[in-house]
Design a protein that fits this description.
It is a single chain. It contains 13 helices and nine strands. By secondary structure, it is of the alpha/beta class. Strands 1, 2, 3, 4, 5, 6, 7, 8 and 9 form a nine-stranded mixed sheet that branches. The longest helix has 23 residues. The protein starts with 9 loop residues before the first strand and ends in a 7-residue tail after the last helix.
């Protein structure tokens, strides 16, 4: 969808913390867009354990389109709100410090925003790994067997959606819903999109839009991420009961079912067929999902999928800490 002329000025907002490894590439992917309109990038920098603050300062010094604002709270929603407050334009683009915009992303997203009249437009979280383990996580994230059938993970037809990855917003809608809820350390995108939809706004999915995503590099970090995501999804469901669907209930029901079957099988062995069937499904399905990326990825994908399911489900069954 090529632009026919100058498009609306855009502000790209980016909350960053411990992103020394990827931040420069993420910002370059924005500044390198062939966008026929004014562009600014606002980095909300949280206290970091690496050189993120120095990298951000260097990027701002090298290009006047980049500015840095502090995020002393350190949490993603606080950073997003600080960046929104500091930004100037009526189209606000959400971006992460470890992603990379696909070529033409801004032009297409703003054109779709104007054509559809949507409050928010977004596309696919294009998970891409570098090591065999990261590639296995990426394969699982892009598979219905790994993370479910949400279109922003696995793709699909364009149209209204419950949520999208990141997003390109009209500022008046951000004002209307009050920005991101700082109470949501995770799931803040889904939560705000829910409020937008409740107030009559449209969240629009376009499969032609993609931003790359760098998966967690180890099993431990993946398990922690999925566990915390499950906890915050539970909080969202408790606050908005109407938002619940089968995809959110499947992992916790799986955890309860597997635990009950393993214990109950001590008295009645046929119950062990459930964990055996699950193990077989994940082993075969995970290996098939990862096989297109080579044997090393295929060998890791079943464990990655099981970790995602069980950590997410266990997290959903437990309350989230306020500092998480």
């Amino acid at each position: 969808m090529p632009a026919s002329g100058p498009l609306s000025p855009v502000s790209v907002i980016m909350p960053v913390r411990d992103e020394e490894r990827y931040l420069a590439d993420a910002v370059r992917s924005v500044l390198g867009q062939d966008y026929p309109g004014e562009l600014e990038v606002v980095l909300a920098v949280a206290p970091s354990t690496d050189r993120t603050e120095q990298v951000a300062a260097a990027l701002a010094a090298a290009d006047p389109r980049v500015q840095v604002v502090p995020n002393p709270a350190g949490h993603t929603p606080a950073g997003l709100n600080a960046a929104i407050e500091a930004s100037r334009h009526e189209v606000v683009v959400r971006m992460d410090g470890h992603g990379a915009m696909s070529p033409g992303y801004l032009s297409r997203a703003v054109a779709v925003l104007e054509e559809t009249g949507a409050a928010n437009v977004g596309g696919v979280m294009l998970a891409e790994g570098q090591t065999p383990f990261e590639q296995a996580v990426a394969a699982a994230l892009r598979s219905p067997l790994g993370i479910g059938g949400a279109r922003f993970h696995v793709g699909g037809r364009p149209g209204p959606a419950k949520s999208v990855y990141l997003g390109v917003f009209r500022r008046d809608w951000l004002r209307r819903v009050g920005g991101y809820d700082p109470a949501y350390r995770r799931a803040q995108d889904w939560e705000m999109n829910y409020r937008i939809r409740q107030q009559g706004g449209t969240v629009w999915f376009d499969p032609g839009l993609s931003v790359s995503y760098r998966p967690r590099p180890s099993l431990r970090e993946l398990a922690r991420q999925q566990f915390r995501t499950g906890q915050w999804r539970r909080r969202l469901v408790r606050q908005y009961p109407a938002s619940v669907n089968y995809r959110y209930l499947a992992p916790p029901l799986l955890v309860v079912g597997l635990a009950g079957s393993l214990v109950g099988g001590l008295r009645w062995r046929p119950l062990w067929l459930l964990p055996a069937a699950y193990a077989a499904t994940v082993t075969v399905g995970g290996a098939a999902t990862g096989a297109r990326h080579g044997p090393q990825v295929a060998a890791r994908t079943p464990l990655v999928m099981a970790t995602m399911h069980l950590a997410w489900g266990t997290g959903f069954l437990l309350p989230a800490r306020e500092d998480g």
